[in-house]
Every structure is written in structure tokens, then in C-alpha cells.
Design a protein that fits this description.
Layout (H helix, E strand, L loop, with lengths): L28 H12 L11 E6 H6 L10 E6 L21 E3 L2 H6 L1
Parallel strand pairs: 1-2, 2-3
GO molecular function: dihydrofolate reductase activity; NADP binding
Organism: Colletotrichum noveboracense
Keywords: NADP, One-carbon metabolism, Oxidoreductase
């Protein structure tokens, strides 16, 4: 089964994607709303209860204010070599709404 993959990147003119542990910009209310809308949108043929996944690195996860973590309505997958992986064998769907799935590589994230 193939899946559609949408890549969303915000970069400065010099290809910077972060500054001092945060975003290089402030006041991105419209852009954040667009990101949420785009990452929550499901194809018409998606099964009932389906969710999109948002794959991010550990530093991006850490830069999201705690009150917004995990990103609601989406499966949050964090790629990190330095944190223990999420034990998906004992997880229930409700667990995915409380904490991110932690994997060690992009390949593992895509396989999840």
C-alpha cells in the first residue's frame, strides 16, 4: 500500500530552519493555522478513525510549547537517536494522543 507524503518546511532565505532553539520568525498565526489544517486533512477514501502523522525531529518536538504537545488530531512521531523508543506493542490508540511515538530513523517513522 502506498501512502501520500507531504513535506512542509519553512526556511529563511539562507536555508535556516531554526534559531536559538525556536523558529527564526514570530507572529505566524496564519501559517500555523495553515499547517494544522493541512496536516489534519485526510483523503476522501480514508477509513473511519484514520489520522495523519506528523514526523519531526527531537529538537522540533522540544520547541513546541508544552500546552500544544502533542499536536492534536494527528499521530506525532519523533525521530531521535538519544531517547528510548516508544513501546508500540503495549500501546493503545489513546496512548498516541498523550505522547509521541519515538523512533530512531526516518525509515522507522515511515514504517510505523
Amino acid at each position: 500500500m502506498s501512502h501520500e507524503l507531504t513535506l512542509i518546511v519553512a526556511a529563511t532565505r539562507n536555508m535556516g530552519i531554526g534559531a536559538k532553539g525556536g523558529l527564526p520568525w514570530t507572529g505566524l498565526k496564519k501559517e500555523m493555522a495553515y499547517f494544522a489544517r493541512l496536516t489534519k486533512r485526510l483523503p476522501a477514501q480514508a477509513p473511519s478513525g484514520a489520522k495523519n502523522a506528523v514526523i519531526m525531529g527531537r529538537k522540533t518536538w522540544g520547541s513546541i510549547p508544552p500546552r500544544f504537545r502533542p499536536l492534536k488530531g494527528r499521530l506525532n512521531i519523533v525521530i531521535s537517536r538519544s531517547h528510548p523508543p516508544f513501546d508500540s506493542s503495549a500501546a493503545t490508540p489513546a496512548d498516541y494522543d498523550k505522547e509521541p511515538v519515538k523512533v530512531g530513523s526516518l525509515e522507522q517513522a515511515l514504517a510505523f
